[in-house]
C-alpha cells in the first residue's frame, strides 16, 4: 500500500542556514510522482517541487532541492539559505500514476521554524 | 491563469445540518480532488472527480458526497454533520494523469460544527 513517512514532527533552523526535511515512501507502482508542499498558518497548500520516479537527476527549484534516492525510497527536501518566511508546515506527497493518478497520499508533515 | 478557488472560506454549522462546499479548478484542469485535514488525522483523501465521473474514493462514510459539473467545477456535500467533521477541506485540481502533473490546491474551506 502507498505510504509516506515524515519522521520529524518539528525542526528548527537558523536564518540563512540550510535544512533537510526527511521523507520516505512505499509503493509498488513503478511510475509515481513525489511532491513537496508548504502550508503556512493560513492553510493554503503551496506546491514547491516535484520529482518523477524515472527522473535521473535531482529536482531543483530556486532555494529548494530534492535529494531523491530511489533505492532507499527517500525524497528529502533541502531548503538552502532559510528565511523567516519559510516557517511553515511542510508535506511530502506521492501520486501513483498507474493505480491512483488523481489521488495524493500525504505524510504527517514537518513543522519548520526559522529562528532569526 | 487563475488558481483554484473555493467558496465559502469559512463556515459554521450545527450538528445534524448539511453543508455544500464549492471548488472551481484551474482552467483546463479536468480532475478535482477533495481532502479533509484535521489535527488528529492529517490530510485524508475524500474523492476525485475526472470529467464528471467519480474516479477515486477514500474511506469516508456515505454522508460525504460530491459531484462535478461539465465546466469542471465541483461541489462537496456533507449531510447530517457531526462534531468530528470540523476540519479544513481542501480542493485540488490536476491537469492530467502524467507523473509530472501537479495537484494545485485552493485556499480551503474551514468548517466548524457546533
Write the layout of secondary structure elements.
The complex is a heterodimer of chains A (116) and B (114).
Chain A: E1 3-5, E2 10-14, E3 19-21, E4 24-26, E5 32-39, E6 46-52, E7 60-61, E8 64-69, E9 74-79, E10 88-96, E11 100-106, E12 110-115
Parallel strand pairs in A: 2-12
Antiparallel strand pairs in A: 1-4, 3-9, 5-6, 5-10, 7-8, 8-9, 10-11, 10-12
Chain B: E1 5-7, E2 10-13, E3 19-24, E4 31-38, E5 42-50, E6 53-57, E7 64-68, E8 74-78, E9 87-94, E10 104-105, E11 109-113
Parallel strand pairs in B: 2-11
Antiparallel strand pairs in B: 1-3, 3-8, 4-5, 4-9, 5-6, 7-8, 9-10, 9-11
How many individual helices of chain A? 0
- The low-confidence runs of chain B, each spanning 5 or more residues with pLDDT under 50, are none
Number of helices of chain B: 0
Report mean pLDDT of chain A, rounded to a whole number: 94
The largest contact between protein chains, plus residue counts on each side, is: A-B, 29 and 28 residues
Instruction: Give the termini distance of chain A in whole angstroms.
Output: 41 Å
Distance between the termini of chain B: 37 Å
Provide the succession of SSEs of chain A.
EEEEEEEEEEEE
Q: Given the helix and strand composition of chain B, which structural class is it?
A: mainly beta
Task: Give me the Rg of chain B, rounded.
Answer: 13 Å
- What's the SSE pattern of chain B? EEEEEEEEEEE
Summarize the biggest pleated sheet of chain A.
6 strands, mixed
Radius of gyration of chain A: 14 Å
**Unreliable runs of chain A, pLDDT <50, ≥5 residues?**
none
Helix content of chain A: under 10%
